[in-house]
Design goal:
single chain; 423 residues; alpha/beta; ten-stranded mixed β-sheet; two-stranded antiparallel sheet; 14 strands
């Protein structure tokens, strides 16, 4: 069915989204006057359960296994000096931890399981990489906590596209077949069919991009859509006898190019793409037969570079959701940031439910629902749900760094758990 934006919005009342308690700033003016409180969590929970056997398997934490402490790795980004001075605007509850530590991953698994999330999407940087070597232990522990694992293929090499089919086959063999599929994630569609899901980062890129001086520069890792298509077709041919479905999701909003590349849908993790544009993206994706998923997120609180070369185009990214300037040394401003993050989490979760379960959009026809949560522990960008220290627990040395920790460092995970519990 061809659906216009206005027709979708004007008929929202009759199709179960009338009670959406979505922030007025996130939707166009023609619909905000029709929103009714409170959001019908139970109704959407019933809808999820009527379509899927285990709704937990349809909520996925983005998970980053790239931290180390001996020597420090990733905590040192942009000239930070751990263990007190970290590449994060908030100090983690666990401090500058190591992703290879069994006790750390055990703690992560307990937090994730308790939140109601049933899957993690592991950032993967190629065969033999630091993240790849961390996977066996992570999967052992996640399996013990009934958490399944999928993979997010990062831009790990210049020839990544040509290696893509072999790398996916490697993941299926090493972390699926050889483990007897103990916790390898298979997405179950509403018709009962199963298949693996892989997310890809930096796929459909522009060939050139304009810099801050108005000069067009080539994008070094640009790959034509046809080249992606050639290799995604190779992969599908290789697994066609093993799985009824293989779902490949791209970190881009350009659904037409995703289709041309032989992928199945869009799933962008970046919280900078604000929810007021999600309806448009969902409608375009539906028109071209692509799946869509959006990032449940608390906004953005990214670290900034301390050393910037003169003449570069670098500008720090703003705090999101946008607000008046925050003075982080003031407790009341840190608590204001907490309230904004809570509002963004609720808004983005509601909109995922509203759009992905709407019968006029394409996901329902394809029996698909996946809500990616950005993120469990991407500390550099400040959208992690992994608990931080309470502000009162910061040492004097940590306080001197100027961390943004609120009074309750676990508020994000607790709120997410409460919201998912209502489903």
């Amino acid at each position: 069915m061809h659906v216009t934006r206005r027709r979708f919005l004007s008929n929202c009342l009759a199709l179960g989204c009338s009670a959406a308690n979505v922030a007025a700033s996130s939707l166009p003016a023609e619909v905000t006057g029709r929103l009714v409180e409170p959001f019908p969590w139970r109704r959407f929970g019933n809808r999820l359960r009527s379509r899927f056997r285990d709704p937990r398997r349809h909520f996925v934490f983005e998970y980053y296994p790239w931290y180390a402490s001996a020597p420090f790795r990733h905590w040192t980004q942009w000239d930070r000096v751990p263990p007190i001075d970290l590449a994060a605007n908030t100090m983690p509850w666990l401090g500058a931890y190591d992703s290879r530590s069994r006790s750390v991953v055990e703690r992560h698994a307990r937090w994730i399981a308790d939140s109601g999330v049933g899957v993690i999407n592991v950032s993967w940087w190629g065969q033999g990489s630091f993240s790849d070597r961390a996977v066996p232990m992570i999967m052992d522990i996640m399996a013990d906590h009934d958490i399944q694992v999928m993979f997010h293929l990062e831009p790990y090499s210049a020839d990544r596209v040509s290696r893509f089919p072999e790398d996916v086959l490697y993941l299926l063999r090493e972390y699926g077949e050889r483990r007897r599929w103990d916790c390898f994630f298979f997405d179950e569609r509403s018709d009962g069919t199963l298949g693996p899901v892989f997310k890809l980062f930096r796929t459909t890129l522009p060939e050139q991009i304009e810099n801050c001086e108005g000069i067009l520069e080539p994008v070094s890792d640009y790959v034509p859509d046809g080249e992606w298509r050639r290799h995604t077709d190779r992969l599908r041919d290789a697994v066609s006898g093993d799985f009824r479905r293989l779902t490949l999701l791209s970190d881009t909003w350009d659904a037409a190019r995703v289709a041309a590349s032989g992928l199945d849908g869009i799933a962008v993790y970046d919280p900078a793409e604000t929810p007021n544009r999600w309806l448009d993206h969902a409608m375009v994706a539906s028109r071209v037969g692509m799946l869509f998923s959006f990032a449940v997120n608390p906004g953005l609180d990214e670290i900034s570079r301390r050393i910037v070369d003169p003449g570069t185009c670098y500008e720090p990214r703003p705090f999101l959701p946008r607000t008046d300037p925050l003075v982080w040394s003031r407790p009341e401003d840190r608590e204001r940031a907490r309230v904004l993050a809570e509002q963004r989490t609720e808004e983005t979760l509601q909109l995922n439910l509203l759009l992905q379960l709407h019968p006029w959009l394409g996901n329902v026809d394809q029996g698909f629902f996946l809500a990616f949560i950005t993120s469990f522990n991407e500390w550099h960008e400040g959208h992690q749900y992994e608990p931080m220290k309470d502000s009162s627990a910061l040492t004097s040395a940590e306080q001197a760094i100027g961390y943004h920790n609120p009074v309750d460092g676990a508020y994000r995970l607790r709120q997410l758990s409460d919201l998912l519990g209502q489903l």
